[in-house]
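thought: fold this chain, then report.
action: predict
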Amino acid sequence: MNGLLSPHESRRPVVMAGCAAALIALAVAALLTYARLPLPMFQPFLPMAGTAACFVNGLTAYLLAIQFRAAREPFLSALAGAYGFVAVAAIALPSPQTAPWIGLVLHISYPACILAALLIHTARLRHGKSNWLHRASLLLMAGSPLAATLLAWLAIKGQAAIPYVADGDSYTVAAANLFVLAACLKITRLRNYLSLWLAVALLANFGDALLPWAGATYTLGWYAGPVLSVISSSALLCALIFEFHLLFDQLQASTHGLMQRALHDGLTGAFNRGYFMEQCPREMRRAVREHAPLSLLLIDVDHFKSYNDRRGHQMGDKCLIAIVGAISGLIRRPGDFIARYGGEEFAMVLPQTDAVGAQKLAEAVRAEVFELCLRGDEMEMGFVTVSVGIATFDPAFDSYDTDELVRRADQALYQAKRDGRDTSRAYKVITA
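observation:
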């Protein structure tokens, strides 16, 4: 499976997640020492922290839900429910009276939801995909935000009935978070990207739970707790955003590859006939707008059927590839291109090229192919050669369309064949 549940193929993700975990651990150790240090009062802090927690967790839940829709993996929908719960419950966080109680509930409910998601993941690994696992994960994804909505409403409406939360409760909550972190390590073994960053998120949440978050308002620990909570939420969000970036790059590369295969001949790498039939009329319209000539060369490999029959299709394919490579080396301008028009026939479009320039290039093509020295005993010269037909469109005198241009080049090519092959002929020569 691709995505966050894919095994990491290098040590780089492990090193990055390990560095993040080490920084969080060092920060928590330093904060525990100075957690009671009083700091200036900053009343907008709680609303800011609540808004940040709501936004980050909500976005994480949304991206996980998108991942679930694509992969149909129950673990992802269960995790989406866990982060959706935190996003909704954080709405009640800005109230000074409800903040300690909501913080306690979040520190308990978040790891509990993660543990439920891990159990669903374990069942998925043991029993494979099943309807009951799918329903359970969907229930957790939809039910957790609904439960958090009810909780936030009760906290806001019934502030007077909320029980007092003591500082000592933080150690019990920290123990619960540590248990879920250990469960994450044991169940996932950090095999994939998701488990790596989920472990980092649980570590940050554990550090937040260790801090004395109740009662000691406007202290270093009181300020640091919500910050660690946002960091915990951001760990998985950053991994999701990075994965979407990688998926976008893969999509661009795949789209580019599809476009290349749609426009190019699979054997020779030249443009295909479809591209020629689409691009040549465009170049003719441009020639009319710019009052500039346009020339077309039709290039045919002499006696190719005999060559192919005697030497085999593989040698015939190699012959065509070598010829296209040689001709492509003569293209110097961005507008010029070569397309495979038929089996052994190629069309070369030359914008802003008059009859004289086209004749020179046709001779260069013929000479370049001859110099390849592709052995061909059935050829008159002992080597593979090409014949070239030339037609030039001059908007000052001509009004014919692409079909007529091709017809004239084809007539010129036929004349080159009649004149002994390994030569080039222009349309105006055969009509003189």
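thought: worth noting. The domain at 273-430 is CATH 3.30.70.270 (Alpha-Beta Plaits).
final: tokens above.
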